[in-house]
Design a protein that fits this description.
Blueprint lengths: L5 E5 L5 H4 L3 H6 L4 E5 L6 H14 L2 E6 L5 H8 L4 E5 L8 H8 L8 E2 L4 H16 L3 H16 L7
Parallel strand pairs: 1-2, 1-3, 3-4, 4-5
Helix pairs in contact: 3-4, 6-7
The structure holds 5-O-phosphono-beta-D-ribofuranose.
5-O-phosphono-beta-D-ribofuranose (RP5) binds next to loops.
Length: about 160
């Protein structure tokens, strides 16, 4: 079995329609991952248990939450692994609440915050690949080929 490298955690099952987009590039680059519901507010003991053992299992954590979105910051407080945050689009404030509650971390505890919603989740997966590629030459070369292919698909002219 391949070693798990990435954990994708989210505050609620209701975050999955957004968070599933974090798996797009992990699947494309054949990177193994786990998914779990871990709520900073509803399951604080689960969060503590997950974060305190995370370095034994993972290299990168992607954490998505909406509303009062404390999951990414609390996860970053409990582990030195890189935490990539996804502000999930919320019903009340369209994810502005999620973004602001994630992004403004106090000095000394870092979270890498992505865009609100699907693009943020997709890019969280991409960022995880980029982090893993810094210590994996073969993955780096596949990532560069992927980027070139993306560049090549952008037309010069408007049709
Ligand atoms: C947050 O509350 C979750 O991350 C989710 O985005 C939001 C709403 O959760 P549910 O009430 O749908 O479970 O903790």
């Amino acid at each position: 079995m391949k070693q798990k490298k990435v954990a994708i955690i989210m505050g609620s099952q209701s975050d999955w329609p957004v968070m599933q987009h974090a798996t797009t590039l992990l699947n494309a680059f054949d990177i193994n991952y786990d998914t779990a519901v871990v709520s900073a507010h509803r399951t604080p003991s689960r969060l503590y248990a997950f974060a305190s053992q995370a370095t034994e299992h993972y290299s990168v954590i992607i954490a998505g939450a909406g509303g009062a979105a404390h999951l990414p910051g609390m996860t970053a407080a409990l582990t030195c692994l890189p935490v990539i945050a996804v502000p999930v689009t919320s019903k009340a404030l369209n994810g502005i609440d999620s973004l602001l509650s994630i992004v403004q971390m106090p000095k000394g505890v870092a979270v890498s915050t992505q865009a609100i919603g699907e693009p943020g989740a997709y890019n969280a997966g991409l960022m995880a690949v980029q982090i893993l590629a810094t210590s994996d030459a073969e993955l780096q070369s596949r990532l560069e080929a992927w980027r070139q292919q993306q560049t090549d698909t952008v037309p010069n002219e408007v049709e």
